[in-house]
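Appendix B. One record, verbatim.
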Amino acid sequence: MKKNQPFLGLLFLSLLLSTSISLAQEQSFAEWLQELRAEALSQGISEETLDAALALVEEPIPRVLELDKSQPEFVQTFAGYMRNRLSDARIERGRRLLEEHKDLFNRIQQQYGVQPHYLVSFWALESNFGDFTGGFSVVNALATLAYDPRRSDFFRSELLTALRIIQEGHIPVEQMSGSWAGAMGQCQFMPSTFYAYARDGDGDGRIDIWNSIPDVFASAANYLSQNGWQNDERWGREVTLPDGFDFTQTGTGVRKTVTQWNNLGIRRVNGAPLGHAEMLGSIVLPAGVQGPAFLTYDNFRTTMVWNRSTFYAISVGHLADRFVGGGPIINMPSAEERPLSRSEVIELQQLLNAQGIDAGTPDGIMGSRTRSAVRSFQEKAGIPTDGYANVELLEKVRTL
């Protein structure tokens, strides 16, 4: 033991020096702001804009950091997610607003090729029709997140873009409010998304997605159009699967024509045939084999460019359908399912990895890699390969 002491002493000294150097390299927030100012000036942001914007930024916002680092305890179920986003009051309000802004929506559809009821659905889900756009200063929130080292490059870039938006006169800095993560306005665009896709819908020379309804819808429609939205297609529909269906054919990685799905026995939820069309679609099972099945088309994929959540994309499409007279989801699970906790998802990922099934780094997030690992386990266990993880599946993984 004694002969190792010099080595341990050197290791301790090395760690101490390394820590000291690291601490010495840390910048105060004031120093960081000065460096940011210099970078912004080099990119053409004026002293006047910087004085106005950075005057609001005194210290990092503790609440922003708290929200950024916090994670929900439970993974939400599909039924719970949909229940929280659909209500009779929201559906009725959406129908009224479709009628109220009918002329504007017709003009937007002619220009960008996006059907009005979908635009109202995004509007409802992003900001409750503009009621809740976030109460944080976007500049201050982004400065807080850019100063924090975990994702500093991303948020620094967003902050510099936000400064450019202010300089171009679209919104005064004191009115640039948004979410804790910097998502802005009634369609909740990040600054980079605003800069790439936002449009002046009312012709006043500015783009105001906070207060101008024409700007909000022109911007949202342009985003969808530029990312592949099809004006002559729906998002998808609820369907039923035949007995003995091969669940390896589910998921967005498998695409077949409507005709091919029809020939495999997929039917509309009322039992009618799908018919024949060359439009490509994928079968999505958001709640596993015990829940509803959806045949989803290209507009569903475009919705997932906006937000990568399958639940979100289904909620946008279904809510849009309800606005124009569509009925509720028929095959919603009959019993409320207990969601997996984040710690249980981590345990599931660890157990799958231990069995030689790659679920990725255990992080408590049910991403595509983990769902693929669940499918592999299900195939190995001889159960339907729907890629869906719940308490029952976790128990099975624990015992095998």
